[in-house]
Design a protein that fits this description.
single chain, alpha/beta, Oxidized Rhodanese, domain 1, two-stranded antiparallel ribbon, 4 helices, 28% helix, globular, Rhodanese-related sulfurtransferase, transferase activity, transferase
């Protein structure tokens, strides 16, 4: 799995380059009550949605997944599932959103409506 992990520094550099990956925030709605910010440009998709409908991702696109779980649990589960399904251009942000913020990289308020389901 280490080869499918990316550091905040590397992601920051990629987001400023022509090789910009799609960034996916995997947090559940309850997580947004505590952490209300998101990496600018990231798309929030629940892990359950991706596992249930893998066609929402393209095998030709680079993706970086992140969450706020201790030990990157959600990102790790989705990464492992994606790799088994043949999505080889997927990486997990080491340390998730907290590591990104600790480096002083930008975050934006998450202001899209969401339902508070806990699944």
């Amino acid at each position: 799995m280490l080869s499918h992990t990316i550091t905040p520094e590397t992601l920051h550099d990629l987001l400023d380059s022509d090789q910009k990956p799609a960034v996916v925030d995997l947090r559940l709605p309850l997580d947004f009550l505590v952490h209300t910010e998101i990496i600018p440009g990231a798309q929030r998709i629940s892990p359950r949605e991706i596992v249930a409908n893998p066609d929402m991702l393209s095998k030709d696109q680079d993706y970086v997944l992140y969450c706020t779980c201790p030990g990157d649990d959600s990102s790790g589960i989705v990464l492992e599932t994606a790799l088994k399904m043949g999505f080889l251009r997927v990486k997990m942000l080491a340390g998730g959103l907290e590591a990104w913020k600790q480096k002083g990289y930008p975050v934006a308020p998450y202001d899209k409506p969401f339902r508070l389901d806990v699944q």
